[in-house]
């Protein structure tokens, strides 16, 4: 599986820019502004050294849902999470944001198996964060039967690579279409979505861990996980959280 799987956290961004020459994040979308104030930039640190960033979503004042591969790629030991629409803080210096501890889902096996990759994690913040609204978990099975519908994808990352690189650390919104969710190969664990401006945009480097939401709601049905190539074309895959196992894991950390 590793020969086609490309994880889409910023931890792999520099490598892909240097070797493949092409990379992007949410494109064909728009600046999110304050529509999803609970979506944050997750900066990752290994023993105090900045290693890269992902995205995540607050489901309570202290619990951020994200992707487990963000932790493993960065060999992370801690995180800081930022919730402003555009993050201008010095991530390498580790200033601003809210520090937190990282926890990977017990089923995460660094993509050794599919479709149940277990690519789910949480950051437990050291102090509560108050925002205008919080995300919630969609009902169990909420994605079943939604083939051909759309989802709202929210995350941080590059906005453009060509003709020039635009890499503002800005929260962006895309509305990709669901291309696969009920097929046997998905196993009830993955949702596959389209990329491209004509299909509502897509996700890529820096968006990992960000939420896939039911349209026009704050309900998370999946966390952004991986793509099939290094240039973020084709289809994206997100790990479903509308399952008993995922929600039991997240529920074990739910704070005030």
How would you portray this structure in words?
This protein has 256 residues and is mostly beta strands. 8% of the residues lie in helices and 31% in strands. The chain contains three helices and 16 strands. Residues 1-25 have low confidence and may be disordered.
Specify the CATH architecture of the largest domain. Answer: Beta Barrel
User: What is the CATH T-level topology of the largest domain?
Assistant: Thrombin, subunit H
State the CATH superfamily name of the largest domain.
Trypsin-like serine proteases
Choose one word for the global shape.
Answer: globular
CATH class of the largest domain: Mainly Beta
Strand content: 25-35%
Q: State the helicity in percent bands.
A: under 10%
Low-confidence sequence ranges? 1-25
- State the helix count: 3
Any key phrases for this structure?
3 helices; Thrombin, subunit H; 256 residues; globular; mainly beta
Compact description:
The protein is mainly beta. The chain has three helices and 16 strands.
Tell me the layout of helices and strands:
Blueprint: E1 6-7, H1 13-19, E2 30-31, E3 39-46, E4 49-58, E5 63-66, H2 68-73, E6 78-82, E7 98-104, E8 121-125, E9 136-137, E10 152-156, E11 171-174, E12 178-180, E13 190-194, E14 211-213, E15 219-227, E16 235-240, H3 244-251
Parallel strand pairs: 9-15
Antiparallel strand pairs: 1-15, 2-11, 3-4, 3-6, 4-5, 5-8, 6-7, 7-8, 10-11, 10-14, 12-13, 13-16, 14-15, 15-16
């Amino acid at each position: 599986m590793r020969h086609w799987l490309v994880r889409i956290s910023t931890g792999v961004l520099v490598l892909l820019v240097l070797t493949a020459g092409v990379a992007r994040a949410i494109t064909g979308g728009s600046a999110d502004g304050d529509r999803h104030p609970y979506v944050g930039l997750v900066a990752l640190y290994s023993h105090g050294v900045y290693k890269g960033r992902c995205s995540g979503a607050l489901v309570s004042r202290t619990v951020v849902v994200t992707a487990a591969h963000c932790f493993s790629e960065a060999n992370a030991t801690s995180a800081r999470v930022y919730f402003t629409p555009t993050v201008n803080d010095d991530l390498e210096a580790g200033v601003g944001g809210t520090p937190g501890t990282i926890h990977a889902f017990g089923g995460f096996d660094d993509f050794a198996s599919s479709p149940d990759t277990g690519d789910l994690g949480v950051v437990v913040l050291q102090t509560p964060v108050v925002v205008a609204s919080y995300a919630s978990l969609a009902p169990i099975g909420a994605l079943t039967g939604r083939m051909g519908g759309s989802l709202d994808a929210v995350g941080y990352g590059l906005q453009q690579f060509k003709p020039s690189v635009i890499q503002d650390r800005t929260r962006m919104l895309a509305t990709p279409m669901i291309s696969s969710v009920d097929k046997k190969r998905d196993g009830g664990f993955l949702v596959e979505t389209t990329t491209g401006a004509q299909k509502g945009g897509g996700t890529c480097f820096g968006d990992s861990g960000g939420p896939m939401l039911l349209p026009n709601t704050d309900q998370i049905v999946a966390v952004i996980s991986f793509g099939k190539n290094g240039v973020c074309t084709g289809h994206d895959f997100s790990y479903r959280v509308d399952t008993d196992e995922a929600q039991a894991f997240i529920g074990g950390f739910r704070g005030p």
